[in-house]
């Protein structure tokens, strides 16, 4: 006589038990990896590999749970369909989860040199670098507007001031902007005499700076705008005029006009930093050497792109194309009556795929022109995925309508291609997102 537990054992065969064990192990691994991340929203870049492990294990583990609950098999096409939807939704949710922390990451990175927030820190830096005996010229900035004119140029306006000795020449600022392609601080707007035998001279700043911006993460990219300054007078060094600001905190946006219109950018820090530059030339000065360095003062502004608008601009047309390509799988048939009703032919679908490929290529070219990047940016992977998917759909049509077909393609009227379509698209999207941002 069979035992009362035999039906349950039949439902939970070795394969389902093995899947359950694997899912449990993946959840344990995800928990162990997540244990070292206190604030995933603000520490995503510092713990990228751990977060990638957490997301991968979670998605695979939940997909296995969905398999256990739905029990998909060829005899149950509806269960296979729900399993396909589940896997696609999990991959899509994991991708969107990565977007959030990446866009919210506001860590102070990208500032050249050594960031200084107090006068004591600036003095300590000069002493450590052997510049303690040089005459210090306190220099400050207040940026009113910042506008990207192209992929590598940014237009800045505002004020630049310096505290100079009382007998110093005030016709021109004692500062040079080596990255400026035009303009500068040439218009004096105020002059104040101070009680410590110095004078504060302010100039109107209008300049275009050229910088190599990094668009690898576009449209979730962050940029750091550098205003690099060199002293004009030998024997002098520029230091930040921190006395002209409240106690410096990078996240307060000091040195930036509070009413500044940032457009599609959001500022998340501003900082003064000090470093050294080299021209690898004597500049014709016999007393100099080719490895001589120039004390350099930087004013850096970190900006994050407001990604929703450019992301939708790129994604919405691609989503429409992806849906149309998916719909083309439903007109693929070998039934003569249905073929005449749908107006289907192999060359019709191939021509449609070619047209979609051309549309995607045009948009891809537009993206390359917008960013001006020499490498591959994140948004380009959307187009690469569509290239691959469209090519696979065209290959599917040719194989399904040929006289010699794969058995998988022949199953249930090309059902396999329809079930695999969205999991393939979303899985590729998740893999590229993890690789670009976290690995």
Alpha carbon gap, first and last residue: 57 Å
Q: Give the tally of β-strands.
A: 10
Kindly state the mean pLDDT as a whole number? 82
Strand arrangement, largest sheet? 1-9-10-7-4
Please describe what this structure looks like.
This protein is α+β, with helices and mostly antiparallel strands and 439 residues long. It is built from eleven helices and ten strands. It has helices at residues 6-11, 14-34, 48-70, 77-104, 119-128, 308-328, 336-342, 346-371, 380-400, 407-410, 415-437, and strands at 114-116, 135-148, 153-165, 175-176, 180-193, 198-210, 222-231, 236-240, 265-278, 293-305. A five-stranded antiparallel sheet has the order 1-9-10-7-4. Strands 5-6-3-2-8 form a five-stranded mixed sheet, with no helix packed on it. A hairpin with a 4-residue loop joins strand 2 (135-148) and strand 3 (153-165). Helix 4 (77-104) packs parallel to helix 11 (415-437), helix 6 packs parallel to helix 9 (380-400) and helix 8 runs antiparallel to helix 9 (380-400). It is elongated. The chain starts with 5 loop residues before the first helix and ends with a helix.
């Amino acid at each position: 006589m069979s035992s009362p537990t035999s039906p349950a054992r039949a439902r939970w065969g070795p394969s389902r038990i093995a899947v359950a064990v694997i899912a449990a192990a993946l959840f344990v691994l995800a928990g162990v990896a997540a244990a070292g991340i206190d604030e995933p929203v603000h520490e995503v870049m510092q713990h990228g590999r751990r977060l990638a492990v957490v997301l991968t294990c979670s998605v695979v583990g939940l997909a296995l749970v969905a398999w256990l609950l739905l029990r998909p098999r060829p005899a149950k096409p509806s269960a296979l369909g729900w399993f396909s939807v589940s896997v696609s939704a999990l991959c899509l949710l994991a991708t969107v989860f990565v977007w959030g922390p990446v866009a919210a990451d506001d860590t102070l990175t990208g500032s050249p040199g050594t960031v200084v927030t107090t006068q004591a820190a600036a003095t300590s830096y000069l002493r450590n670098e052997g510049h303690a005996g040089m005459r210090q010229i306190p220099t400050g900035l207040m940026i009113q507007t910042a506008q990207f004119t192209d992929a590598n140029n940014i237009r800045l306006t505002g004020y630049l001031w310096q505290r100079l000795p009382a007998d110093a020449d005030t016709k021109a600022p004692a500062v040079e902007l080596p990255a400026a392609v035009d303009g500068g601080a040439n218009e004096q707007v105020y002059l104040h005499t101070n009680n410590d035998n110095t004078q504060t001279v302010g100039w109107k700043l209008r300049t275009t700076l050229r910088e190599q911006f990094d668009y690898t993460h576009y449209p979730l990219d962050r940029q750091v705008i550098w205003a690099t300054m060199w002293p004009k007078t030998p024997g002098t060094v520029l230091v930040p005029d921190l006395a002209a600001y409240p106690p410096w905190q990078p996240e307060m946006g000091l040195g930036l006009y509070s009413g500044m219109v940032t457009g599609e950018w959001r500022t998340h820090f501003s900082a003064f930093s000090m470093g050294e530059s080299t021209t690898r030339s004597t500049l014709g000065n016999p007393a100099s050497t080719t490895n001589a360095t120039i004390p350099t003062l930087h004013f850096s502004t970190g900006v994050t792109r407001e990604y929703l608008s450019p992301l939708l601009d790129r994604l919405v047309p691609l989503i429409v194309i992806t849906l149309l390509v998916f719909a083309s799988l439903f007109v693929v048939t070998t039934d003569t009556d249905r073929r005449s009703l749908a107006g289907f032919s192999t060359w019709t679908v191939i021509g449609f795929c070619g047209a979609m490929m051309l549309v995607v290529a045009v948009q891809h070219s537009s993206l390359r022109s917008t960013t001006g990047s020499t490498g591959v940016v994140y948004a380009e992977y959307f187009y690469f995925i569509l290239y691959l998917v469209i090519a696979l759909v065209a290959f599917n049509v040719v194989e399904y309508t040929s006289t010699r077909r794969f058995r998988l393609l022949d199953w249930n009227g090309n059902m396999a291609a329809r079930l695999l379509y969205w999991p393939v698209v979303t899985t590729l999207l998740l893999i590229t997102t993890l690789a670009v941002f976290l690995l």
